[in-house]
Amino acid sequence: MLKHFNTTIFVSLFCLCVSAKTLPTADWQVIPLPKQVTSTGGQPFVLSAKTTVFYADGDAKQKRNAEFLASYIKEMTGIGVTTTTRLSSNQIRLGIASLQGGNDAYRMKVNKKVVELEGTTHAGVFYGMQTIMKALPIVQDAKQVLLPAADIADAPRFAYRAFLIDSGRHFFSVDYLKKLIDVFAMHNINYFHWHLSEDQGWRIEIKKYPKLTEIGSKRTGTIVAPKSEEYDSVPVSGYYTQEDAREIVRYAAERYITVIPEIDMPGHMQAALASYNYLGCTGGPYEVCRHFGVIKEVMCAGKAQTLQFAKDVINEIMDIFPSQYIHIGGDECPKDRWKECANCQAKIAELGLKDSEGHSKEDQLQTWFMDEVAKEIRARGRKMIGWDEILDGTPSKDVTVIGWTSPKATIRAAKAGHPTVTAPIQYFYLSNVRMNKLTGIPSIERVYNLDPCMDELTPEEQKNVIGAEGCIWTEWVKDSKKLEWQLLPRLAALCEVQWTQKEQRNLDSFLSRMLHIQDIYRLKGLNYKEDIGQAVKK
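^ thats the sequence. predicted structure below, dont judge the formating
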């Protein structure tokens, strides 16, 4: 009897060991790297068709989270799990708990019986689900997958983790933007900065000013190459209705992403000037721009009509977008026209503006104009955000500044006491191939090794750096394939900069983990630069 019993135990243990070795197994070393992963040494959780995902009855957000998680598991492994409001064993349980690390923090306890995933908020739970998804092996029609026993505690380094897509130069469909939002969600990004107006195209419906889309959304052709004098005759057009924009807002919000709209002013406005000539200093005529760069024609800051236009547009934008941040640009606004414009010079005299050290009177006029628009934003309980050229004037300290012109811009803004976002063109502009080459490991290294909190800042000043942002500008990006080549896998490097603690980041570790996320890109039908992964394998 005893002999039989011992043999039974041996056979059972042998089968368990073989099973553990042969079954596909998850790996918690994901991108971005969690703050703490502790192996508990216990038996793994066995994910199978018998597994359920639990959420509390009546919790609509958690129900949606559970459905997302079930779809992720199906996509990665082929295993169909069900969602439920009943507790049982062999279950992934989603819940809310008071945790350290802010609203996006989560913790996960994995053992033989259950996976307990709790977040400070539903967003925290969602980020824990991203960790599960990225940890899973990619297998076809698996019957079982093992989740190693572990305790995971995670929270982001920065609360602001953003990416910008420029729809002004080239238009991208609502469906494609949804695809990009899913990509952002997978990389724990929580702000989609949507650039909606440009010299080359106005892309959002404004009901009070219908010509913005009737005229401003269309250009007759485009310069064929940088510094070329040749233009094609291929029309470029397209705009988003207000309902389109609300649909993007809804879709992103379900994935805990806030859409920050940008209407760039007073520069980068020639499409608006072509629609309403009176907005410019000369009165036109203007055309929707066919070339790229810094354009001389800008809004006339001296006309009351122009300021009213800006306020009207921003109020309609705030009706559409619930974001706490409203971006009104402020970059690359040449002052040539203002220096010659009687209306602008009269406004400068009326306001008593004078040249001062580092700030021309025209710079101060832009500060006044932007602050008048910012008053509309503040009146509705929102926050103005702009590019770092606004520091050429004297903006109020509550204005959030995105430092794009160089790392020094981040230093300047943070030292001045502004909430600051690091987004230097030399590192985080993924579409700028002149400064950020697309090939090989150096293209990853350049993004990965820049820390958003510059060493030149004191510990107190570093507290003003609220996050980091990457950008894809679309002067030379007409299609999804090129956009994704520029985006991936460098977005993975950026998201680890945004999320993972500085002391945990290690390029060699990242590159080894990057190979699996490239497999996920392939599974999802995304284009990415394969040469980087090939270089890692060598």
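Residues 1-20 have pLDDT under 50 and may be disordered.
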